[in-house]
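Many introductory courses stop at the sequence. We go one step further.
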Amino acid sequence: MLVALKNGVIIIRQDHKLRSHQESQLRFWGFKKSKEGYRAISTEPETILFKLINYFRNQQVCYSLSKDCQKLIDKIKDKKDSFEIIRRRGERYKDGTYQGENLLEFINFLQKAPVRALKDHQIKAATHLYLVQNSANFSVPGSGKTAVILSVYEKLKREGKINTLFVVGPLSCFQPWREEFKMTLGREPKYQILAGGDPNKRKSVYFEEIKKIPELYLTSFQSLVQDYDYVTTFMRRNGVEIFLVIDEAHYIKRVDGNWARTVLGLSKYAKFRCVLTGTPMPRSYTDLFNLFDFLWPDNNLIETRTKIKIKQLEERKKNEEIKNMLKTSIGSLFYRVRKSELGLRAPIFHKPIILQMNQYEKRLYDAIENRIIEVSREDYLRNRNLVKKLRRGRIMRLRQCISYAKLLLTAIEDYKEDLIEDDSDLIKIIQEYDEIEIPAKLEYLLSFIQEMQKKKQKIIIWSNFIKTLKLIVQTLLQNNIYCKLIYGKTPTEQGSISEEETRVKIRREFMDPTSGLDALVANPAACAESISLHKSCHSALYYDLSYNCAQYLQSLDRIHRVGGSETVDTHYYFLQYKDTIDQDIMQNLDDKTKKMNNLIEEDYNIYSLDMVEGSEDEQAFTRLFKDKKP
């Protein structure tokens, strides 16, 4: 039996007849009967070859390999041997036993070359990446992952192994990469933003002369999908040696997602690869699959049968078995800095500031709460899915009440229940609310910020509702408090500079101690990720909260990070109305945060703590109304 390879076609030339079950196996792998024997066309012949050889050995089928086959097998074995060396190197480095020359050389480089010295935990993470080559950095938010990547990039560039850094991530990460580049390496990067605007106008960028290509490319997941063919052509060009980084890599966790497929398709064209995320497994162990398929596309780190086994074990909650499997397959190939290693001062969480609602907002809250109790009596008669939607909507109405009364005029998706339709007085109060009353929270906020200004301290104010954000800004400006707003509709920096203010410009002004911009108003959904404010702002006030723990935790980290919070106290303040849903949300977030703080100290843990609104809203409804009667 001769196994040959010709132009991607695997040919099995027979000298004796195979058994029926052996023929069935060949057909399963895509082989078809021909005059020569069996033929299979494959884009990955090495995978089929290894399966075929192992199968023939197990079946005791005599075979020989053609020269081309043997060359390919030898090449694959060399690659596997090289990977095994890297895997063992990572393992020994993490357990403290690795002493190779390249270790000392790299640490010496870090101590002399980069302009900004790295912290101890950053040096450890950077050294791991340099030794392993394709690594995941799962360090907690605020640990300085960008500076780690840039230091490794500089070393590889000086060694002539790469000549450009290609970063894929959310739009909010673009400016931090550019700023960190200058602060870490001491020079302004020649960069190119490949996101937003007309895709056709981006085409020419991918075909620039090699000598003109910038050091830094920045693109979004959405634009990468649109530009996939051009990016592929660019990465395959001679002379383009890419270090490919996926920032906030949890966005590609969906196995069947467009973003994931695009990123995975490009991974084989990069010289070096890295993924960055502080939440590698936000909801499931399967969230890791795409990350390591991207890092090592030719090595099948987590085999298909292992993935299937992990899914089965997860359903049965056999977490310890999963952790052991993951430790064996990927444990040496990622690095994680925990919060406890950052050397930051413990943040100060001030006791919630409990306020009495003003007259009309209290009247609205009480009326809606009583109406909810009344209509809930009929829930047992309704469809279960409908009840879920109703309860989510009712909780949202209560949250609107403790934020800004006029939000009650806003429609809620999949919620049609009208809680005030029969009361014309309440409707009139809502419609004319701005003319008859200022919310008690807003009154307190004004005096609070004025005191902060006397102390010459900047502050960020968080709210989850856009209308509330706009009300806060309008009121502050009317009272001669210079402030600006960042929310979901604020323009994000793209390829061309817009006349409108961008988030980047607002952030720069806020960071400038002489700008006079002392108050930034933002919602966690738009400003809780990839943005650092800790160098000029050390106080945050939460005007209202949601049950979304992930966004809450990210918002906390905007002002509590490496590079400032080691020596300066960070303060968090919370406005709450007495005897309202405010207390339930705060308690719920506190409970989940304590659990999260325990989990993030471990390498293999799921962070699914009902961090999205929906299921949490229904649970909140049960807590708040189970014992209440109309």
